[in-house]
């Protein structure tokens, strides 16, 4: 009775939220019907995934999610699984504590020190009647739930399912043992050249989490726009935020909106990495505060796409007071341990000026409790052991990169999501070449900079610069499917790296991505499932 009541409540909530749409009954595939074997939908590839004989766990009115840990994060992940299953079946599967151990059918979420090593690793066995998902830490359980999501048929992604009668479903019987190759699996979104609101950013976070990515680097300021409220420096948003490439209205996140994005991402095990690019790429700041310019004169706002012309006045003390205010406010809003200071494409300073600037900013960032990240030009400066270099220029000197305390790999000719797929791609740039899906997939982070010690490589990040992307639909078109390729490069073990397998598994995502509403590029190399 209780379950039916709760189920009804949920149907009503969703029903009223969607009341604008036409009230037609959606046709749907029969439960479980799919041409592709469920384990062939797991992307990024798991270390080990096998189908088991016999039935998996039935999701119906009798099913329970059993959470044996007192950690609230684990209960929250149980809630996410329950939401996923409710959307799939119309049945609200209740979450119970360890007193319900022994209930059948059930899905058990357990924090287990004997689970595969690493906070993000997990072991999933869905043989019926009791499925078990085990991990050493909540992150691993979260990634196990993402795998369960990919094991469910694509039509479970349609909210419309909630309008229909409860429709029991059986989780396929599989055993998956999985762990990531690298701790840093990220994407970067440039919200400065074009601004994307908090709802768009959350949608992007969802895409990352589905592919087991765990960092979202937000490029929050550039020549064309300043995108975050700084209470001590209000002109940054009064003036600097009101422009964009092509002259659009721009925009910015209030501190409350930024904190909300950070919390939303954290719930999905995605750490926000804020970037304020400096000393170059600073026209929006220079236009807002005349005193940051060596001339004392503020330039007009900039809406073009040139780079390298702007620089903070690195000889003025006021510049460092400004940076301290910015780094201080953003750091206090950001629980993650990183602050990215840009440092790229500075064409108006001497090498000596550049070096002194980066080293001084490094001190400021550390004083606010964060590790400094910089684009690979900062590899030429004296970096402390906690600092991180983000490699982007294919031609960057390997000898310098090899000295970096830590490296994030974002090679422009492999990982840049804003490069065109082919000569006919309507949006995107091509300075680093064309990047078809196989080029994004077929590279090995361990051999990209062979001189760098393996332990220095944190992982991979796919930047998406937004000069040519005016809307989040444009962003999705460039990101997908290449984001999935970079996710697999970062997550999957070298022994699992295989173009033919990736090609098939990627093709299998099409019905799910369509159901989610992702505007993905149907790369001609891929056998997209219908
Ligand atoms: C280079 S990548 C830049 C950006 C541009 C991007 C376009 C990097 C550190 N700097 O300012 O937006 O190319 O692909």
Descriptive report:
This protein is an alpha/beta fold and 530 residues long. It folds into two domains: 39-178, 2-Layer Sandwich (Chitobiase, domain 2); 184-452 and 480-489, Glycosidases (TIM Barrel, Alpha-Beta Barrel), CATH 3.20.20.80. The chain contains 17 helices and 19 strands. The protein has helices spanning 2-17, 72-89, 138-151, 198-210, 235-238, 255-267, 283-288, 317-333, 351-367, 398-402, 412-415, 437-441, 445-448, 472-479, 482-491, 499-507, 510-516, and strands at 48-51, 58-59, 64-67, 95-96, 106-111, 122-125, 130-135, 169-170, 174-178, 184-190, 215-219, 221-222, 225-226, 271-278, 338-342, 371-375, 388-391, 407-409, 457-464. The strands form four sheets. It has an eight-stranded parallel beta barrel, surrounded by six helices. Strands 1-9-6-7-5-3-4 form a seven-stranded mixed sheet. The protein has a two-stranded antiparallel ribbon with strand order 2-8. A hairpin with a 4-residue loop joins strand 6 (122-125) and strand 7. Helix 2 (72-89) runs parallel beside helix 3 (138-151), helix 4 (198-210) runs parallel beside helix 6 (255-267) and helix 8 (317-333) packs across helix 9. The radius of gyration is 24 Å and the shape is elongated. The protein starts with a helix and ends in a 14-residue tail after the last helix. The protein binds ligand TNX. Ligand TNX binds next to loops.
